[in-house]
Amino acid sequence: MKLDPKAMQLLKKAQEGSQKFVDDVKNQEPETIPETNDPDYPFEMKIRDNVLHYRGWKVKDIRLYKSAESPQEQKEALIYNLIKEPVTLDSYESLYALIMIRSKSVDEGITYHFKCKKCEELYEVDIRPEDNINIEFTPYTSFEVNGHHYQFQDLKNREVYESVEKSELMDMCMHVKSIDNNDGYTLEEVINYFEDLDLKDFRKIKDTYDKQRFTVTMHGKVKCTHCGNEIEMLFDTLPNFIPPEFEE
């Protein structure tokens, strides 16, 4: 899923346009989690098995965002400063957190414009991103490929993750927990290990990683306001997602 250009720069997503539906991946709808009594972080969201307490944007977050000198500092202002727990979020997890934070911060949805394929009339639909989210993941479990054992995990080092150049390989390497039950590899050693693998083995490992990781898609039914023709739509962009106050 891609945000509008400004938001894309903030998140520096690792896998532009790489979303896909995987038939054998567990499909989970976002859970409805009750609000808490913590006045500073009154809301909750769940990413994988982690319950995170968060708040909405405040005017001070706009000031911090505008004074930020790097994409990492902008991300702190938009996401991390609003979450109570110390956590490191990858690109999909950051997107989900950003959508949930936005849902508690602004009242407006996002307007999409369509041309009906049946009657060919133009129409627009206003949606709430949080109402159209679908998340997919399976538990991180050890698996074997060509006699070697691999296990992935949640990200552990925010400073490193936010500072490295994002790529599919880097994202996967930073989620590695152990190789052949050895959890002492450095990031450089993990990268070198995967770069030296045969392509067929790497594809099998990457396929399992893609199924286990937390992914986000948005799709729902859209109905033409003129003729009532209804279609299933994948919302792969989020135009005007970041409030204008952050950019003025």
Structure overview:
The structure is a single chain. The relative contact order is 0.19. The chain folds into two domains: 2-135 and 215-246, no CATH class; 138-212, no CATH class. The protein is of the alpha+beta class and 248 residues long. α2 (59-67) runs antiparallel to α3 and α6 crosses α7 (187-195). It has a four-stranded antiparallel beta sheet with strand order 2-7-11-12, with helices on both faces. A three-stranded antiparallel beta sheet has the order 8-9-10. It has a two-stranded parallel sheet with strand order 1-13. Helix content is 29%, strand content 23%.
The outline comes out as: globular
Number of extended strands: 13
Whole-number count of domains: 2
As laid out across the biggest beta sheet, the strand order is: 2-7-11-12
Total DSSP helices: 8
Helix/sheet category: alpha+beta
State Rg. 20 Å
Query: What's the mean pLDDT score?
Result: 87
Work out the helicity level.
25-40%
Strand content: 15-25%
Distance between the termini: 25 Å
What's the layout of helices and strands?
Layout: E1 2-3, H1 5-11, E2 27-28, E3 43-47, E4 50-54, H2 59-67, H3 71-78, H4 91-103, E5 110-115, E6 122-127, E7 133-136, E8 143-145, E9 148-152, H5 158-163, H6 168-174, E10 176-179, H7 187-195, H8 199-212, E11 215-223, E12 230-234, E13 237-238
Parallel strand pairs: 1-13
Antiparallel strand pairs: 2-7, 3-4, 5-6, 7-11, 8-9, 9-10, 11-12
